[in-house]
From TrEMBL:
EC number: 2.7.7.18
Organism: Metapseudomonas lalkuanensis
Principal EC category: transferase
Keyword Nucleotide-binding: yes
InterPro entries: Cyt_trans-like, NadD/NMNAT, Rossmann-like_a/b/a_fold
Protein name stated in the entry: Probable nicotinate-nucleotide adenylyltransferase
Cytidyltransferase-like domain ranges (all copies): 7-184
Molecular function terms, GO-annotated: ATP binding; nicotinate-nucleotide adenylyltransferase activity
Amino acid sequence: MGKRIGLFGGTFDPVHIGHLRGALEVAEQFGFDELRLIPSARPPHRDTPQVSAAQRLEMVQLAVAGVAPLVVDDRELKRERPSWTIETLESLRTELDADDQLFLLVGWDAFCGLPSWHRWSELLDHCHILVLQRPDADSEAPEDLRDLLAARSAVDPQSLQGPSGQIAFVWQTPLAISATQIRQLLGEGRSVRFLVPDAVLAYIHAHDLYRAPN
Ligand SMILES: Nc1ncnc2c1ncn2[C@@H]1O[C@H](COP(=O)(O)OP(=O)(O)OP(=O)(O)O)[C@@H](O)[C@H]1O
Ligand SMILES: O=C(O)c1ccc[n+]([C@@H]2O[C@H](COP(=O)([O-])O)[C@@H](O)[C@H]2O)c1
């Protein structure tokens, strides 16, 4: 039987417990052999992050060290172009067996933007998509996703068959935490303890990240 591999891409500016708790819960529900967190080097649809890709990567590495099955995949940092997910999937597929199942985790807000992703109609050729709820997000799917949802949604997330091709909505503890909130708190000189792992907190302070310019 093929492996079950989860993928969770993000800007992770910085990684926080909304990402980490969701990732771990989904990994347990789906029995993933591994769940790869993939920091974007150059996120396609947003301004350049405040913190370098290398530092965002280091924070993700600190956050998941020793927390199986979460691991870090740094392939997007090695590409000299926007971090398009379709290219990440294509590159992963060249390393895997044909029957390995890939599950791309995306938060609801990211999922709603799917039709604007590079070559988006090809994504499901390579993976299943698992959508994580975000308590702070709107609940209506955009018009241009309705046909896809009607054709590809699985009623029971545990019933996803084959290496790719379906969409499922998954439950995880709702945590209304965002990296934006964390950057804002730090910019105001306030604490982000318990919103990020202690090792990430220590890294942020050691490198003086996200402080408002004097
Ligand atoms: N609290 C959360 N619960 C569930 N999914 C989340 C949560 N925070 C982020 N995500 C998802 O994680 C992925 C990466 O998110 P990202 O790194 O942009 O974090 P963010 O908190 O949304 O950042 P920002 O506030 O800077 O936009 C996206 O698919 C996003 O929807
Ligand atoms: O491939 C694309 O065109 C694309 C467009 C927007 C976002 N993504 C990916 O979606 C993930 C979440 O993005 P973000 O901006 O919310 O951190 C991250 O892995 C991005 O690389 C991908």
